[in-house]
Amino acid sequence: LDGLLNKPAPSFSVTDRDGNVYSSDNLKGKKVVLFFSEGLACYPACWNQIASFATDQRFNTADTVALSVVLDGPEDWQKVTQKMDGIDKANIVFDNGGQISRTFGMMSVTSSMRQGTSPGHTYVVIDKQGIIRYVFDDPSMAVRNDQIASELAKLN
């Protein structure tokens, strides 16, 4: 993962459950947090982080967005959004076939419970120019809002 640091983020394009497209191109000018997770299979840890990003205003500003990247499909998440407070407001984006997770090298991180086939619990912070400035893989699978907000604050 250290090989990602201070390099342009790989090109990506993902869609949320409402059909909004987020891409490396249309996110330039914003600070971006990509949270790669095992999604539905990672309950409650990943769900807690996803919901926490959604309800924390530090990650939902005019110049900052947190995207939770999952391999599951939108229809699977529709049921979840009705079960947990906050998660319905989350920017959950769908990595169909795991292509973006593979491009970012997230399939073989320490936190992955299914090495090679699924991401774990990993954060990537991208600056307004599209450069990766921080990567953190978290095998303890905690909610890391303060830590990630601190890294965002270092970016101008």
Fold blueprint:
Blueprint (H helix, E strand, L loop, with lengths): L12 E4 L4 E3 L7 E7 L7 H11 L4 E2 L2 E7 L3 H8 L10 E3 L4 H5 L17 E6 L5 E6 L7 H9 L3
Parallel strand pairs: 3-5, 5-6
Antiparallel strand pairs: 1-2, 1-6, 3-7, 4-5, 7-8
Helix content: 10-25%
By DSSP, the count of extended strands is 8
Instruction: Give the number of helices.
Output: 4
What Rg is obtained from the alpha carbons, in whole angstroms?
A: 14 Å
The largest sheet is: 8 strands, mixed
Termini distance?
A: 23 Å
How does this model look, in words?
With 156 residues, the protein is of the alpha+beta class. Helix content is 21%, strand content 24%. The protein has four helices and eight strands; from the N terminus they run βββαββαβαββα. Strands 1, 2, 3, 4, 5, 6, 7 and 8 form an eight-stranded mixed beta sheet that branches. Strand 1 and strand 2 form a beta hairpin. The longest helix is centred in the first third of the chain and has 11 residues. It is globular and about 35 Å long. The two termini are 23 Å apart. The mean pLDDT is 94.
Could you provide a short overview of the structure?
With 156 residues, this protein is of the alpha+beta class. Helices cover 21% and strands 24% of the residues. Strands 1, 2, 3, 4, 5, 6, 7 and 8 form an eight-stranded mixed β-sheet that branches.
